[in-house]
Amino acid sequence: MTWLAWRQFRIPAIAGAVCLAALLGALLLTWWQVRDLAVSTGYTGCTGEDCGSAASSFLHEIEQSVANRVQLAGIAASFGLPALVGVFWGAPTVAHELESGTYRIAWSQTVSRRRWMLVKLSIGGLAAALVAGALSLALTSWAQPIDDAHATLAHAHLITPLVFPSRGVVPIGYATLAFAIGVTVGLMLRKTLAAMAVTLVLVVATQVGAVELRPLIAQPVHRITTVTTESILEVETYHDVVVRLGAFPSETDSWELSNTIVITPGGPEYRGPTNQEKCTPECREWLGTQGLLQEERYVPARRFWLVQWRELGVLLTLTAALSLISLWWIRRRPA
Questions:
Q1: Fewer Cβ in 10 A, N or C end of the chain?
Q2: How would DSSP label each residue in 198-227?
């Protein structure tokens, strides 16, 4: 049964391996370019205050190079991989056999429904995990100098929604979950094209929903501090109404969820009134003496790996749940 399942899965697996090899080849070709730019800009081996300017120069050179386009392609591939796995690997795996009736051959050869489903889930899920893991490992290693430079400049980089799903172990969870979604949908709909369409919608919805739910996993910091003249970032007033009032974040390398100026904790955003005689030309000094509060919610960059492992745990739990549903459904579904 395992050999037969692999034979049926070999064409999608080969196609995935070819795409992965192409992207890994691009990363390999630009590997030394990234390292050479780090050396030529003085970032590699820098110490003390010199690292700030060297990191800035290094990132500027990266933005002008081919390596930047490769990095964007890698991030795009990380986001697109779950959808491709779910649509082209997961959905047809069971739906095509149920639609064409070829499943009867296996079921008539003393192979139980549960074993048939378990083998398909295992082979496809393992292949998805291997591809996602290889891509994430290569991209994370390739981009290490770039990520370090952002950390040197205290940029919010790794923890942000754009970069976070393309690094570490989380891509493995998204790929395996996408495959399980495809298999489950295909099992229930029994139509390949319909299953592919529904799977695409569900996988994309999962990725979008993860951005909204990630703060719950990350347990963001809730911080309230008194606003001072030095902490005010921008001020814009119209007559005696504050149109815009912003303050510098407490931790610049964090994923900022909210940053507002209020009068009381949890209250509405401050909008005035202001003292027109003392608010010329900007109001910074006067606002800094009004006892206003800066209320922030953010995820610190130091929690990157904590959030990675927590999110992977959630994704693998959902994958296991969908797999159990599929195993339960296949035993009760009429042939």
A1: C
A2: HHHHHHHHHHHHHHHHHHHHH--EEEEEE-
